[in-house]
Amino acid sequence: MKSFIGLLKKEMLISRFWYITYLIIILVGLTGGAFFANRVDEPSMIGPMIIMFMPLQLFFLPLMVHSLLKTEGRTQLWLYNPQSSVKLLLAKVTTALMFQIISQILWISCGSIMMKLLNNQNISWKAIILTNVGLLSVGLYLTIWVIFLWTIYQSLGKFPSLRKFRWLAVLLVIIVYNTLETLFIKIGFIHDRVFKLTTSVNTTLGFTYKNDTGWTIIYEPIPVPILPIIFYTILSFILFIIASKLLDKKVEV
Q1: For this UniProt entry, which segments traverse the membrane (predicted)?
Q2: How remote is the C-alpha of 72 from its chain's centroid?
Q3: How many Cβ atoms sit within 10 Å of the Cβ of residue 181?
Q4: What does the pLDDT average to over 160-168?
Q5: In 10 A of CB 203, how many CB atoms?
């Protein structure tokens, strides 16, 4: 446990400048949006601005992990680290996940305060939380794919004849997987069964404008298929394990 905490501290130190810059951008964006909404005398506009930029949050997690992986690939320090590849990768994911959660809490907290002060508009915290959990889950899934594809790219580097074609191999993996998934889902009886079992989740879908109230956030229940969530969870676990094994073999070399 101490070794893993040590890895977390190392990852936080490596990424602290990048993350602080990201937080500053968030605060500047919120402040600028509030100033603009007040300047055009449309305080309700701060709501759509907050919702519109929320999806950008899901790219933070994979981009940050990719940045940490690039640092390892550039310095090659991971070749001499006695910790297992599972711990090395898990420390990066955990660090990025912690930073991601903090940034989303900051974004929503500051946004809700601004909406209350500028437009006296309350938000549905349950819907906002569920929306953020969804964004976080998608971001985590994309992060696992980033790790998996990065390890494939690094593993192929030990073959001189394939070194120049590593990006082609990564692209081929993406194309093959998406093609197989699309063909699989298009099968009628599979599609019907996969999307039959659903649960209703009340979330934020967008916003609407009325002359008397201005911009208002729309909250509506949407059906969320359960089986795809289970499948992508298992797939993420499998991809992570494969990535760890590939990285172990790379370190052995």
Answers
A1: 17-37, 49-69, 89-115, 127-153, 165-190, 229-247
A2: 20
A3: 12
A4: 79
A5: 21
Radius of gyration of the chain from its Cα atoms, rounded to whole angstroms:
21
Residue with tokens 């998934």: 181
Q: How many CB atoms lie within 10 A of CB 18?
A: 13
> Residue 225 belongs to what H/E stretch?
strand 214-225
Residue type, 191: H
Where are the alpha helices (H) located in the chain, listed in sequence order?
2-39, 46-53, 60-75, 85-119, 125-155, 166-186, 188-194, 226-252
Angle between helices 125-155 and 166-186 (to 10 degrees): 130
Residue 222: phi and psi, rounded to 5, are -125, 145
Q: What is the pTM of this model?
A: 0.83
**Residue 216 near residue 207, CB atoms below 8 Å:** yes
pLDDT tens figures, 8-52? 787 888 887 878 888 888 778 777 777 776 676 666 666 667 776
Which of 97, 125, 126, 130 lies closest to 111 in space, CA to CA?
125
**Do the Cβ atoms of 146 and 69 come closer than 8 Å?**
yes
Q: Which two tokens stand for residue 27?
A: 């605060």
CA distance 165 to 173: 13
